[in-house]
Amino acid sequence: MNEPRKRITQRIRLEPAQQSQLVDIQRRSFLRAGLTVGAMSMLTGCNLQDGDQVDKVLWAMSRWNDRVQAWLFNGQKLAPTYSKAQLTNPFPFNAFYPEYNVPEVELSDYRLAVSGLVRDKQPWTLDALRKLPQRTDITRLICIEGWSAIGQWGGVPLKTFLEYIGADTTARFVGFKCADRYYSSLDMPTAVHPQTLLALDFGEVALPPDYGYPLRVRVPTKLGFKNPKHIVEIFVSNENPGGYWEDQGYNWFSGI
């Protein structure tokens, strides 16, 4: 009788130059994934061995996609909502790191910093945030990796918070910095959408660490990576702050 073959796994180590080349390839793949067939046809005149030239075209088309999505966005159209019977249980964990690396944020030390084009730059405690008008929605989070899940989120409408701090809502962007070194940003029309929340609660309880404690942004009109967790600073700007994944090639607007 033939014995089953043992599977041999060999770990391949890449030199620094090879690692850099792999990152470049991955970035171009991200950008290509966001382009239409028509946009990709514009690359046929490029030398595909010329990485810099390809990058320039891909980034230009990605920015074009952003402008089209922004033009199509309806700030008054609500994302679908669901019943409690439709909640996903358990709700999946998602981050750019494993669960054991979720940051620990001490409530007693926590202050939400505010900066940029705002009148009042005083930091906020969670208690102060909870005293603002609250909203609860059951919405679907859609991940760029292909899965989705329905959760119940409660917190302060971001529009309400921006009004309280005297933000210049004619500015173009709202940016977010996080305790886990993540960062992201929204266009102002999405930031003031009625369903965009500074989420303090998940389900009927305070936001658990895995889902973004002490504060996360919940944006049901955007893909999941536009919903940053563990927020420590919010700022308003006319300069696009980019984002962790956006700066690696993901489409910046990423509307649903």
UniProtKB/TrEMBL annotation:
Ranges for domain Oxidoreductase molybdopterin-binding: 101-245
Gene3D superfamilies to which the protein is assigned, alphabetical: Oxidoreductase, molybdopterin-binding domain
Species classification: Bacteria, Pseudomonadati, Pseudomonadota, Gammaproteobacteria, Pseudomonadales
Alphabetical list of Pfam families matching this protein: Oxidored_molyb (PF00174)
The name this protein goes by in its record: Oxidoreductase, molybdopterin binding protein
